Amino acid sequence: VTIRRATIEDIICMQNANLHNLPENYMLKYYMYHILSWPEASFVATTTDLNEPELDELSLEDGKGNEIKLDPHYVAPGEKLVGYVLTKMNDDPDQQNEPPNGHITSLSVMRTYRRMGIAEKLMRQALFALREVYQAEYVSLHVRQSNRAALHLYRDTLEFELLNVEKSYYQDGEDAYAMKKVLNLDE
Ligand code: ACO
């Protein structure tokens, strides 16, 4: 598995992986906005092992009982996407008095590739780039209270601090933990 910077050619595969792995989904133009605005801040994990069934048979149910077949996860001939992290700088005009800070919009790894350290590697690359390239002094993210795997990664492995609970942050009513990590230059 290789970790490299995400490019505009990767965004359909990133969106497919996101649809497969998470209920929080975004329009393609939002991926495009990330990659065009902060081209060095998002990363993908890819494999050349093409005998991976999970990545071949992607289909979704559209809520009305119809099956939607998704594009295969080929980012290039012979290269499939197994994970991504989509990040941005905070560009909220209401927060202009804040120091520059980054935001983790979405992270996921395909199921058969989990527990191999891929998410940690993607996150560390993104945190480094947000700090070195975009001068982020800290990064923030939201995570579901029930998401044990992601909470372990953020709180224990990457040492994010818990800021507060945002009530009914998600569409289904679940609360979110708002988390933050200060990016030290000497780390
Ligand atoms: N239960 C407990 N701990 C776990 C689990 C789990 N299911 N999965 C991973 N961990 C731990 C690992 O043991 C490791 O801990 P360590 O540093 O103590 O050894 C740490 O988390 C990092 O593990 P990785 O192998 O790097 O994580 P992985 O590549 O498996 O990806 C992820 C973790 C991204 C959460 C994956 O489970 C996933 O894609 N889940 C579905 C999508 C999702 O929930 N994304 C995050 C949403 S929040 C957001 O996007 C801002």
Q: Count the DSSP helices.
A: 4
Largest sheet: 8 strands, mixed
Overall number of strands: 10
What is the overall pLDDT average?
A: 91
User: What fraction strand?
Assistant: 25-35%
Alpha-carbon Rg, integer: 16 Å
N/C terminus separation = 25 Å
**Ligand inventory:** acetyl coenzyme *A
General description of the model:
- With about 190 residues, this protein is α+β, with helices and mostly antiparallel strands.
- It has helices at about 10-20, 30-35, 120-130, 150-155, and strands spanning about 1-5, 45, 60, 65-70, 75, 80-90, 100-110, 140-145, 160-165, 175-180.
- β5 and β6 form a beta hairpin.
- The two termini are about 25 Å apart.
- The protein binds acetyl coenzyme *A.
- Acetyl coenzyme *A binds near residues 143 and 157.
List the helices and strands and how they pair.
Layout (H helix, E strand, L loop, with lengths): L1 E4 L5 H11 L6 H10 L5 E5 L11 E3 L5 E3 L4 E3 L2 E11 L11 E9 L8 H15 L5 E7 L3 H10 L3 E6 L9 E7 L5
Parallel strand pairs: 7-8
Antiparallel strand pairs: 1-2, 2-6, 3-4, 5-6, 6-7, 8-10, 9-10
The chain binds acetyl coenzyme *A.
Acetyl coenzyme *A (ACO) binds next to β7, α3, β8 and α4.
